Amino acid sequence: MDYKMKENMNYMQISLPNYSYTLNLEKNFIYWDTVTPMYDHLPYCFVYCAMYVILVFSGKYYLSDKPKFDLRRWLALWSLMLATFSVLGFLRMGSEMYHTLSNYGFYNSICVPNFLTQDSVAAFWTFLFTLSKVVELGDTAFIVLRKQPLIFLHWYHHITVLLYTWYSYTETSATGRWFTTMNLFVHSWMYSYYALKAMGFSPPKWVAITITTLQLTQMILGCVIIIAAYLYRQTNECNVTPYNIKLSMMMYFSYFILFARFFQQAYLSNKLGNKAKKAYANETSSNDKFKMK
């Protein structure tokens, strides 16, 4: 991959959001300094995923005849930290997204990766967002240790999001602006909800329905963004590779199917069995993440 070619892409220089305050880490961050190390590290992501699967299912087997751990306080702290990260990240990325859409339009928001190449603040938070997908593998530890039901959507989602997000970062994919911002927005609400549940609060059912609806909306918008990128590539310069478009479409569409099935079972089916109800209750209380990247 020729990163210098990407770095010298002849995109117009555009204005940046007027951030009221920036940290030195944000000011001094240079996206291009991280691309090669991240690309070289990409194969290790497959190792992380393999280790994740081995530990998760071997852990479930080992604990099958042992008492479960409570860990409620640790779960509350974990969820609160991830909620805080998501809120802060969304405030930064949301500001950049609003600025781009307001001043340069929909095409630029999908096809021009200036949020990485020109905006050190947005690039810094995109970098942290990418790394956070490794950290979020820890979510499953609470499910395994508390002996909660582990559904396919949970671990499938963790693996595919990690691999795709890391790959897209090294590709300087312009659609990452949308995917990162949407994911941080949904996570802000979702992790806050899980933190409240772990702390012993009982939010009304409509809150859970709203969060699942946001997740479904995220998948639909993700597909719309991917289709738009594909169409723009037919007539314009658009910094999203055909391979990336294929991967993201498969990922988002599969998520939509799985989330829609979950929504139907949890909220719409009159024949929802006790097992499904229990699995849903356990998933929400154990911080199972139903999200994109």
How much helical structure, as a percent, in the residues?
Answer: over 70%
Strand percentage lies at: under 5%
Count of discrete alpha- or pi-helical segments spanning 4 or more residues: 12
Structural class: mainly alpha
Spans of 5+ residues with little confidence (pLDDT < 50)? 1-10, 271-277, 284-293
- Quote the distance from N terminus to C terminus: 23 Å
Q: Could you give a quick summary of the protein structure above?
A:
By secondary structure, this protein is an all-alpha fold. It is built from 12 helices and no strands.
Task: Describe this structure as you would to a colleague.
The chain has 293 residues and is an all-alpha fold. The protein contains 12 helices and no strands. It has helices spanning 3-7, 24-27, 31-62, 72-111, 114-117, 120-135, 139-145, 152-170, 176-198, 205-235, 242-268, 274-285. The radius of gyration is 20 Å and the shape is globular. The model is unreliable at 1-10, 271-277 and 284-293 (pLDDT under 50).
Task: Please describe the topology of this protein.
Layout: H1 3-7, H2 24-27, H3 31-62, H4 72-111, H5 114-117, H6 120-135, H7 139-145, H8 152-170, H9 176-198, H10 205-235, H11 242-268, H12 274-285
Helix pairs in contact: 3-6, 3-7, 3-8, 4-6, 4-9, 6-8, 8-11, 9-10, 10-11
Characteristic key phrases:
mainly alpha; 293 residues; globular; single chain; 12 helices
